[in-house]
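Researcher: Re-running this chain for the archive, since the previous output was lost when a drive failed. Same request as before.
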Amino acid sequence: MNVNWMFITLFYSGLFPKAPGTAGTIVALVLGVFLLSYFGPQTLFFAALLITIIAVKEIDKYEATSGIHDDKRIVIDELSGMWIALSIAPAVSFSLSELWILENGLLIQIVLSFLLFRLYDIKKPSIIGRIDRDVKGGLGVMGDDVIAGFAAGISTALLVEGYRYIT
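Model: Regenerated structure tokens:
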């Protein structure tokens, strides 16, 4: 195995036999929460965009040599989508010790971001599905998850702020 394979399978989490996408998303979630707590949402967002750009090129290379489009073992797209959702939803810096204080709502926002991202990534509504079906290569693999990440982050923020408004 080479560095490209380790990268696009997100440290081999994409090799998990059942639900590799969910396994990759969980790895991305843990890494994302850690980065969010130390560097803030802006850094996490731009890291997701940088990884997306690199991943498009690496996935294109993989697809050219393997002949497989959107191999289910490729889960670096889950990392980009999950990090975008996390950078939008809480949109605050926090320390890891604050995560467990239920009153601040961070844990709820993180869990909701995860659940909504997986929902959008699996169901592929609207433009997410269109990108998944119609865009080929690395851009197609990454594009649907990036849009699902934006949708999950915005949905989470709206739900949390709506809940705060009515209570």
